[in-house]
Amino acid sequence: MAVVLGYDESPGAARALRIAIEVAAAYGEELVLVYGAAAPGLRDGAEYRSHHDAIRQAGRTGLEHALTAAEAAGVPALVEVLDEKPAQALMDAADRHGGRVIVVGTWGESPMRGALLGSTPHKLLHMSTVPVLCVPTEEGAEEPRQEAEESRP
């Protein structure tokens, strides 16, 4: 089994990486770092190939940073840059690697915005057969604690 992480170097993904490393270490499992690199537009022509190559390179660079963090924590990890949209890439990787859980970060967007625009966490929550752990950004995680502390006598 494995812990599958969608990683794109966003603030939400940075926190999700820390959580995914903790989960993988706790269960003694491999961490599969995934980047869905489907380029928008028609799949032909020089412009598409250029955009596709740039997206794949950005994904590889980001995943190398995540791989370094996993290795520093002593968690075995591997990297996959897939030519699919992010949600599909994560579900496919989870199927191939026997995913225990898919971990993704959130951007702190409203549920309505996610439903209308089709965020990756929203898609995963509705389509994945593997449990999905949605990790809020640091800012979103800190707000409730601060409010609770302020309300104490």
Summarize the model shown.
The chain is α/β, with parallel strands linked by helices and 153 residues long.
Strand content: 15-25%
The total beta strand count reads: 5
In angstroms, what separates the terminal alpha carbons? 47 Å
Radius of gyration: 16 Å
Helicity range:
55-70%
Shape designation: globular
Q: What order do the strands of the largest sheet run in, or round the barrel if closed?
A: 3-2-1-4-5
Rounded mean pLDDT score? 83
Number of helices: 6
Describe what you observe in this structure.
The structure is a single chain. The protein is an alpha/beta fold and 153 residues long. It contains six helices and five strands; from the N terminus they run E-H-E-H-E-H-E-H-H-E-H. The chain has helices at 11-27, 46-72, 86-97, 111-117, 120-127, 138-151; strands at residues 2-6, 30-36, 77-82, 99-105, 132-135. The protein has a five-stranded parallel β-sheet, sandwiched between helices. Helix 1 (11-27) links the parallel strand 1 and strand 2. It is globular. The N and C termini lie far apart (47 Å).
Question: Key features?
Answer:
153 residues; alpha/beta; five-stranded parallel β-sheet; 6 helices; 56% helix; disordered C terminus
